[in-house]
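Re: the request from the purification team.
They wanted to know what the chain is likely to look like in 3D before they choose a buffer screen. I agreed to run a prediction and write the result into the notebook, where they can find it.
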Amino acid sequence: MLNNISHIRLVKNITFRRLIFLSFTVLFLNSPAFAAMVSISNDGVNIRSGPGENNEVKWEYGKGVPLTVIDEKNDWYKIQDFENDTGWVYKSLTSSTPYMIVKANKGSNKKINIRSGPGTGFNIVAKAYYGVVFKTIEQKKGWVKVEHDSGTVGWVNRSLLWGF
């Protein structure tokens, strides 16, 4: 009799632990920290006030703008951009290609440095303003190797960028 009671308690304890683990997993996977990211696949993509072509166009994005997916409805994503603005975009107008956007120096004429290697000891090969979009090539120790549409390739400190 004692063995059966111990066995039941053990099974209940294991089941309870599994339930706690699953609860945490669901909470974390649904949190913004684990939200999917997409990028805009073409120039001139409309971001709308709701999920459908009949909804008002709030603004337009160009190719590569990175976005966080915060909800889905049918063939539409509710997205959030690097300035925390939200809207809806048709799913087929997005891509899984990783891009970054310069988030540093908003409201100023200051530029960030793009370097020949991943560190401040490398030469500056170009500079970029707030809001410039780059394709992500590689990430390494707090630095991102990026490529601009102009063909410029270099490294930027990850803290100056937003995206994936």
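For the purification team: The CA atoms of residues 45 and 68 lie 16 Å apart.
Please add any questions underneath this entry.
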